[in-house]
Amino acid sequence: MTRPINADVPAVATGRRAAPEAPSPPSPKRRRKPVPGALKAVAGLFLLAIVFIVAAIVGGGGGGEEQAAEGPAPVSEAPSTPAEAPAAVTPEELGYPSFATANTTRVGGGDPASTAAAAALAAHPSTKPSQRPAAVTVVDAGDWRTAIAAAALVAPPIGAPVLVSDADGMPDPTAEALAALAPSGGRDTGGAQVFAVGAADAPDDLRAKRVRRAGAAGAAGLLALRKRLTGEAPRHIVVAASADSAFAMPAAAWAARSGDPVLFTGREALAKPTARALKAHPRTPVYVLGPSSVISSGVVREIAALAPRVRRVSGEDPVANAIELARYSEGGFGWNVNDPGHGFVVANVSEPLDAAAAAPLSAAGAWGPLLLSDDPGTLPAALRSYLLDVKPGYTSNPTRAFYNHVWTIGDQEAISVNEQAELDELAALVKIGGAGGEG
After folding, report:
1. Domain locations in the chain as residue ranges
2. 79-100: pLDDT as tens digits
3. DSSP string computed for 41-103
4. pLDDT mean over 252-270
5. Is 162 helix (H, G, I), strand (E, B) or coil?
6. What is residue 296's predicted lDDT score, i.e. its pLDDT?
7. What is the pLDDT of residues 334-358, one digit of tens each?
8. How far apart are CA 272 and CA 263, in angstroms?
């Protein structure tokens, strides 16, 4: 290899376009850049996918030794004289540190469609048929609830990454990623190449299964679809807040990891589609995600009348709520990430579609939970404290240590370069204690 693997990675986008939401109290949104042109997008997506694979290997699972990508800097095409010094190449031109550091990799689309396309190609490089998913799920950018619920189709055995469509049709990054992924359908997908949710488009030349409903009804429809495809009832059900996307976002990563369906409810009354779905699964335990400020105790009592067991997993704010789910463990439910050696995904609370877009990263490579930041410039204290608790270390031999790796989701208006650098520091392997055997 004669040049750095990410020498051609385009500069990180600086603008963001808000994704529309179904009616509910909106979260603050940032302006988003227009979708890039077709040729630029497809080249960027394929290059990003290659880089993500290398980064996941370098920064991912335990027992590996970190290595930096090597190779000389790109050479200027202009002729030089013996008196001229070589052209300088800045770290920013190479994509460091805004694209990748030793322990972090950015999936930095300027909009949810670009982010989802990049994450899908990171999880499914698709350079040969064995790397391609059997199906993809296309969700409606106007409905973050069904987008989050669709993450359950990411989990095995279906393995369908999430792509994003909108009311104006399929964005270029989505169409190009879909062409690159080239889903062929299979037994686990019921022959479908595309699952189209709500108002999302599906190409006419691909076999599609549709969940036409939106919101809580659409989420219940996705539970029924996964049950039909797998032939199995869910092991657990997650109920999230329909009116507060930031508290619901961490459910997407867990759904992708486990296949557990995500249903939605109002704060003061259990949504009727959710109640019907719970009645149809009277033996399935339910985990309520979020505090009583977003899902009341009265709703929990309604759920308890329909389910054999109900547990609340919650933090007082979205950042703490995500950490609680990352730490939680009861039987087969919960990440139980309370030690080093894991992957993590960090997104901004203001972009709920990013939770669905990034879901494949929680079910591939160094699997791990979704964590949240509520400030693009400063890492929240609670998140910093949690990552310090699970920071990896070694005593004498770093090649026998466990490593953490962090995917940062969105452009610099979601997660700034300074914040990414701090995440890199918190994920970095450090020497601890004195010499005393390997580990």
Report:
1. 38-61+96-431
2. 444 445 455 544 555 566 778 9
3. HHHHHHHHHHHHHHHHHHHSSTT--------PPPPPSS---TTSPPPP--HHHHTTTTTB-SS
4. 98
5. strand
6. 98
7. 999 999 999 999 999 999 999 999 9
8. 11
